[in-house]
Amino acid sequence: MRLLDLLRSIRFVIAGRLRALLTLLGIVIGTGSIVFLASVLRGGEEALIRASQEVVEADIIQIRRDQVSIGDRNRTRRDLSRDDARSLAASPVFGGALSESARVTEAHVHGKKKRVRLVSAAPETAVLYRLEVSQGRFLDSTDLDDRRRVCVVGHEVWKELFASRVALDPAAPGPRLMAGGHTWTVIGVLANRPMLVTTDSTDMWNRKVIVPETTYDALYAPSHEVHRLYIRRNPGDIRTPLAVLRATIESTLLQRHLGVKNFVVGDDNGASQERLIISVIKVLLLSTGFIALLVGGINIMNIMLVTVTERTKEIGIRRAVGASRRSILAQFLIEATAVSLLGGVLGVLSGLALSWLTITVLSKLVAPWAFHLEIRSIALGLCLSVVTGVVFGFYPAWRAAHLNPIDALRAE
Questions:
Q1: Same domain, 111 and 173
Q2: How would you classify the pairing of strands 208-212 and 176-179?
Q3: Do 179 and 327 fall into the same domain?
């Protein structure tokens, strides 16, 4: 079948505007939704990670303090501490450990006050939480060794308490704030990191005041108790399952805590929860695209059946001049596939345009949202449109190929 003949046949199939719309609509919606959702959800996943206030790395195991069971309340025990972190970090099984303590308090600056969370930290905290500093610097080892009373404040704390200050001068002594009953010198300001959903919680980094962990312990926790530990998997030991590492952590801490389990290992992993949410959304929404393709396939079958009926005499003439059933079958099957592929191409283009428009709006209204050109989703949409055309166009093509030539020539 020549390309010119194919184009003429396709033009006949979608000759009417309404017929063309009904034929292509399902395929356009199906492939367009696949491309649109893949692009938007990929950007949404990155936006969730950027806006996450928790650790989002997959190779981090979190241990948090927990209540003691009723039977163990009268037993001698140890609380979760920085010594636990050092003990686990010394093991060759793990690649490092970080501990964290926090307390909710009020920060005061020249009569202004704000509810904040005072957090103990180390230089590695910035890497762990992917924190960025917009002004000044983050904590360094000297701050910890000298137990300096310095702090890094969140974007919202700086904006509300130091609104009159344009910038933080690294060469000059920083401004001071009162928090937790002590005076701290501000050495840095975190870049804006808002949550996707507005909340009054102090858990967001914009409302935190970060201080050296050694200074925090000297002022508030002389026994070095902590609220959380973060244990990193050894980069050279990626084959060991996380479940085995969690069991190792639990057995080590049970020995150190005199057999009393007053901690939870890996119970609050923000990254896995966000990935689970994204995965569920993908499954639910992409299934809508497959249903739309199914509807589009049914439309193609109906239109092709009508086309076979309208072109019965043409089929009879072709059979009379020597065309085989196989060639008739191939002709109508190629027509159905070409029409479906045309709908797929239009769907891909419309999906890309709609995703770009949606992401542009979301970036202005919600948070920075990156546009991604998902090649796999484009290939999937086009392949599914071809498969839809072949599957749903086969029966009309088979029916055309098995028409009786004499009856077909008599058709009006």
A1: yes
A2: unpaired
A3: no
Closest CA to 84 of 258, 343, 205, 280: 258
Query: Which domain covers residue 181, as residue numbers?
Result: 60-269
Task: Return d(Cα 6, Cα 125) in angstroms, integer.
Answer: 64
Output the CA torsion sign for 214, 218, 224, 229. Answer: negative
Q: Which stretches of 177-267 are DSSP H helices?
A: 213-219, 242-256
- Looking at the fold, whether 76 and 200 belong to one and the same domain comes out as yes
Indicate whether 138 and 66 sit together in one domain. yes
Axis-axis angle for helices 3-13, 270-310 (nearest 10): 90
Residues 65 and 205 in one domain: yes
| Among the ranges given (226-230, 231-235, 375-379), the one the predictor scored with the smallest mean pLDDT | 231-235
Same structural domain, 226 and 360: no
Query: CB 212: neighbour CB atoms within 10 A?
Result: 26
246-304 residue pLDDT tens: 888 888 888 888 888 878 887 544 555 666 666 777 777 677 777 878 888 888 888 78
In this structure, which amino acid lies at residue 191? A
Q: What DSSP element (H or E) covers 358?
A: helix 325-365
200, amino acid identity? D
Does this model's pTM top 0.85? My answer is no
